[in-house]
């Protein structure tokens, strides 16, 4: 089951990279070889930084990004993170269609 969830998460990362070519290199670097040694501390720092949202540099955007990075190595998070990405992609495309319709 976790292999299926990993493939689903990888497909969502790929779709995000296809939608935004600027993110493609970043996604490849995060998923790449450095592995758990860099990803887990990076994810935890992002999540902790999100709780410091009252400071100018930090923000709540860091929490979902940290969970996204952590889901690569933590199978427990994969289903919910990939489902969240799917929902966000659908809402984004609906919003874009509505914007183009109003033009």
UniProtKB/TrEMBL annotation:
Superkingdom, taxonomy of origin: Bacteria
Keywords for the protein's UniProt record, in alphabetical order: Membrane, Transmembrane, Transmembrane helix
Transmembrane segments: 42-61, 67-88
Protein name: Tryptophan synthase subunit beta
């Amino acid at each position: 089951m976790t292999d299926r969830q990993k493939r689903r998460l990888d497909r969502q990362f790929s779709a995000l990279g296809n939608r935004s070519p600027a993110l493609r290199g970043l996604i490849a670097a995060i998923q790449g070889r450095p592995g758990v040694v860099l990803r887990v501390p990076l994810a935890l720092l992002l999540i902790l930084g999100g709780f410091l949202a009252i400071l100018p540099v930090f923000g709540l955007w860091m929490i979902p990004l940290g969970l996204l990075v952590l889901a690569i190595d933590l199978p427990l998070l994969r289903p919910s993170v990939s489902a969240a990405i799917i929902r966000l992609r659908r809402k984004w495309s609906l919003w874009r269609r509505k914007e183009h319709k109003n033009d």
